[in-house]
Design brief:
CATH architecture of the largest domain: 3-Layer(aba) Sandwich
Largest sheet: 6 strands, mixed
Radius of gyration: 22 Å
CATH topology of the largest domain: Rossmann fold
Number of helices: 12
CATH superfamily of the largest domain: HUPs
Strand content: 5-15%
Low-confidence stretches: 302-328
Order of helices and strands: EHEHEHHHHEEEHHHHHH
Number of strands: 6
Structural class: alpha/beta
Mean pLDDT: 85
Shape: globular
Distance between the termini: 62 Å
CATH class of the largest domain: Alpha Beta
Helix content: 40-55%
Length: 328
């Protein structure tokens, strides 16, 4: 049955260069580029994938995660939850009747994988709990590869990983056996960022136009986004739409949370406060997307007084404590 080459394609420079290396070495019929759509991608990335398909004359397989079954199971769990006591942090284990009503009213498949996963979890991913990569990318891709694996056939997954990218990847191997007939190949492992852009230029392939303003291309935004990337993201033509989308997501995920609170960037502690060091209402409001935008627009790290002019909004938001689920 031969060897099947799968290229993990994200729309970023490294995966695009990896696809070009494969096309230069192999017959096009043995190559299958695969893109996993998280539902939190840049609009320009979808346009760029269309460009690659047309320019390179190769179809791109697009996968979309589906959490409908897990959401149905979570709804049953919430409706039947009768636990008593508290967890190790002192939080009540059982869903209150009010939180049950709100969660069951909101917790339905939305058609967007990222939002569905966050509603399912009752929170957004963070640097401490990065479940997005596992559920939205890795698991979907692995299941797809498993379905293609047959006796006598070899599967080689090409990855656009470079050692200079991070400490975690500095010891990555060029070729790696994962299992019987299943391998990883990383042809760019010794390349630099400059090498990648130079190669794209030599091949006559434009890089994703998002690189004109962003340091990396991926989720919009990524939970690892820094101040510079966030400032550039919100300055894009799509910036206002992205901001509105995240506002809506924070409202919907909050309704599906047992605490009634969820912020997109809650894990990065960007706003100079850790949960437990300040009142929970202050913590959560300082980490909601409008507050993070306020933070990103400041040229330096937060200092005393950085919230001047923003506190009235915090006070108005917390004027009625029952809105925060404190009077259940």
């Amino acid at each position: 049955m031969g060897t099947h080459h799968i290229i993990g394609l994200s729309g970023g420079k490294d995966s695009t260069a990896t696809l070009l290396v494969a096309l230069a070495r192999l017959p096009k019929t043995s190559i299958q580029p695969v893109f996993v759509d998280t539902g939190n991608e840049q609009r320009q990335t979808y346009v760029y994938l269309d460009y690659l398909e047309s320019h390179l004359d190769i179809p791109i397989t697009r996968l979309t995660p589906d959490f409908s079954q897990q959401i149905a199971e979570k709804r049953r769990f919430i409706a039947q939850d009768q636990r008593t006591g508290r967890d190790k942090r002192g939080a009540k284990l059982r869903w209150s009747n009010r939180r049950k009503r709100e969660a069951l009213a909101e917790l339905h498949p939305s058609g967007n994988p990222f939002l569905d996963l966050c509603m399912l979890k009752g929170m957004f991913p963070s640097n401490r709990s990065r479940f997005c990569t596992e559920y939205l990318k890795k698991d979907v891709f692995v299941d797809f590869v498993d379905d293609l694996t047959h006796p006598g056939q070899q599967i080689i997954v090409w990855q656009g990983i470079r050692r200079e990218e991070s400490e975690k990847r500095k010891n990555a191997r060029l070729f790696e056996r994962v299992g019987p007939g299943f391998y990883y190949f990383r042809p760019l492992i010794h390349w630099t960022t400059a090498d990648v852009f130079r190669f794209l230029d030599e091949k006559g392939v434009h890089p994703n136009p998002l690189y004109a303003g962003l340091g990396r291309v991926g989720c919009a935004p990524c939970v690892y986004a820094n101040k510079k990337d966030l400032r550039a993201l919100f300055a894009l033509e799509d910036g206002p739409a992205i901001l509105n989308r995240i506002r809506e997501w924070e409202t919907r995920v909050s309704a599906c949370s047992k605490t009634g609170r969820a912020a997109f960037f809650h894990g990065k502690e960007l706003a100079g406060a850790r949960l437990g060091e300040v009142h929970p209402l202050v913590f959560w409001d300082r980490h909601r997307i409008d507050a993070i935008k306020h933070w990103a627009e400041k040229p330096t790290r937060f200092n005393a007084g950085d919230w001047d002019g923003f506190e009235p909004a915090l006070q108005a938001a917390s004027a009625c404590s029952s809105e925060w689920g404190l009077c259940e």
